[in-house]
Design a protein that fits this description.
With 417 residues, the chain is an alpha+beta fold. It is built from 12 helices and 17 strands.
Length: 417
């Protein structure tokens, strides 16, 4: 029997291809990842390509039962290019940060196994948030942490150090790769190898800690965090003092407050750092205004509340947006909810649920708020100023999803409608 040499070459070529290319199998993974809310703020980059910060930062990871990103990534020989869908809309995947993350994960997989089965395959990415995007609720941090976690599951590199990869997508996303309280160490190496996220304490460490998110504006903010940081680095002399003098002291004090479960110290530092972050934005030229009138009114009410209570019970903080985040202890949640709902009630005729998450009803102001607080808090009522209030707490890092109903790409490799 004479066998054609071309046939043998063809067979050899097929057999040398990765199994995935021969079988056209669709490989998928899905994870969720949390939002994190900084209590020591990150603002400013010393390297805009590697996303290396000018200062270290520290955050609380929020419970994913209320706030999370969810991402499915699929790989298949049937795909002829990488694609991404965000909240049901196809987006441009040529974004350099996305490309950096994809390249880093693929390189990590090849280092671990030069002949891994997904080598050379294109991917489809589908991601959704269950909260407003780009409104100062750390959507990019949750999104990139979720993307990196899902890619790591798919490419079997989940047991490697991932915060350095997440960081090149969105700096603060490295803090969303851990649960509980998380530090992002700024590092000093030029290549960013020591600029990593690490856990200060797990979510189980301080179970009494609760979080209220007051959504003042669910729309996209006027100045993005990226452009805002660049402007501040270029024009604010205050930023250098903050990064070199103030933040290192606050990081040490905040870590001690967390370890000691000292809410007075935790709350004071949280509010001071939020104030200073926004002062740095005002020191930028031209100035950046992330807070609005309602944001400032919330600060006024909470400042008077703490004074009337004779102790810090509600610690406000604001990221780059108008939405307030209040850290508090479980014993004070109902009084704070009653207070906020009283001074910032839902808009007349509002059909959406006003109190969401772990609580669903605002307690009665008259019977829940102490007389001392009623006497001490004097502010105008701003109806409709807060769209809704979300009650959550401190939670774990990314979670692997097995439920097919929660996958965003089906078993055939198509985006679910």
């Amino acid at each position: 029997m004479i066998i054609n040499q071309g046939y043998l070459t063809w067979i050899a070529g097929i057999m040398s291809e990765p199994t995935a290319k021969r079988s056209k199998e669709v490989f998928r993974a899905t994870t969720t990842a949390p939002v994190n809310i900084a209590v020591i703020k990150y603002w400013g980059k010393r390297d805009t390509k590697l996303l290396l910060p000018t200062n270290s930062s520290l955050s609380g990871t929020l419970d994913q039962a209320e706030l999370h990103a969810r991402t499915t990534v699929a790989a298949s020989a049937d795909y002829d290019q990488d694609e991404i869908w965000l909240n049901g809309v196809q987006e441009d995947i040529s974004n350099q940060r996305l490309q950096n993350v994809l390249a880093a994960i693929r390189a990590r997989a090849e280092e671990k196994d030069p002949n891994h089965p997904l080598k050379g395959l294109c991917v489809k990415i589908a991601s959704v948030n269950n909260f407003p995007t780009a409104a100062g609720l750390a959507s990019s941090a949750a999104g990139y942490a979720c993307l990196v976690s899902t890619l790591a599951q798919l490419f079997k590199v989940q047991d490697t150090e991932l915060t350095s990869i997440a960081r090149v997508g969105s700096g603060s996303s490295c803090r969303s790769l851990h649960g509980g309280f998380v530090r992002w160490t700024m590092g000093t190496e030029a290549d960013g190898s020591d600029s990593l996220g690490s856990q200060v304490a797990p979510e189980s460490h301080w179970p009494e800690m609760q979080v209220l998110v007051l959504v003042v504006n669910a729309g996209k903010k006027g100045v993005s965090s990226t452009s805002g940081m660049q402007a501040t680095v270029k024009t604010s002399p205050f930023l250098k003092h903050r990064a070199e003098v103030v933040v290192p002291e606050r990081m040490a004090a905040m870590e001690k407050a967390i370890q000691d479960r000292d809410f007075h110290a935790f709350g004071k530092i949280t509010m001071q750092d939020s104030n200073q972050f926004h002062a740095t934005c005002l020191d930028t030229y031209p100035p950046i205004f992330y807070l609005n009138d309602v944001s400032r009114a919330i600060i006024q009410v909470l400042t008077q509340y703490n004074a009337a209570a004779g102790e810090i019970k509600a610690a406000y903080t604001y990221d780059a947006g108008p939405n307030a985040v209040i850290y508090c202890l479980k014993k004070d949640v109902q009084e704070i909810l009653a207070l906020v709902a009283h001074f910032f009630p839902a808009a007349e005729g509002a059909s959406e649920e006003f109190i969401r998450g772990r609580s669903t009803v605002a307690p009665a102001y008259e019977t829940t708020v102490s007389q001392a607080v009623k006497d001490g808090v004097k502010a105008n009522i701003v109806q409709g100023g807060v769209h809704y209030i979300l009650h959550t707490g401190i939670g774990p890092g990314p979670q692997v999803i097995e439920d097919e109903d929660l996958f965003l790409i089906d078993a055939e490799g198509a985006i679910k409608s």
